[in-house]
Amino acid sequence: MTKCSVYLMVLLFLLGCDSKGGESKRSQVESEKLKNEILEKQAAALEKQKQALADHANQMVQQISSQWDRVQGLYQKRMAAVSLLTRLLDFHQDKLTAKGAEAFAAVGDSSNLLEQADEAGTIDPAADDQRFAEYEKMQDALVMELEKLINEIENIADLKVMPEYLNFRTEMESTGNLIASERIGLNEKLEELKDLQAEK
Known about the structure:
By secondary structure, this protein is mainly alpha-helical. The chain has a domain at about 70-200. The chain has five helices and no strands. Helix 1 (about 5-90) packs antiparallel against helix 5 (about 165-200) and helix 2 packs antiparallel against helix 3. The longest helix has about 90 residues, at about 5-90. The protein starts with a helix and ends with a helix.
């Protein structure tokens, strides 16, 4: 083998090594590019998921606000009926027993607390769950005191047949059923919103 042949073989060997090294580098670059593309797609998908959750949460807040408006409207309707009963009993307090008078006073106290809460400003159930819970407890306390008063009135023959009282009972029953239904729906939406916020 001549020196020229040896030199040629060495040259070809070195060129082959360079070629393999180049292919290896190109492979690494392509792999890194593919990896970055995958990461970008994952980040975009995650951002899209977060945005979908945020949009859903905003929709839930709007639905809660609408339902809370309906509940408050029913609360006001009930308070109007309580005011009519109060005016009736103001003229007939002498007919009330001691327990009846006590229950009547308790209804007045509960009504005053609710009026003060209303004057304190609008409640946002989606943003202030503590204040909302306290307000709902006050509404429940009013109903409990009203039930005690009604039980006493039902034992007073001439009071329980008065048209004003009968109208009050009818209004209380229909309004109470609507309030119960709306509150169930409202509480379900509030729980769903909490779950969505936890996912975020």
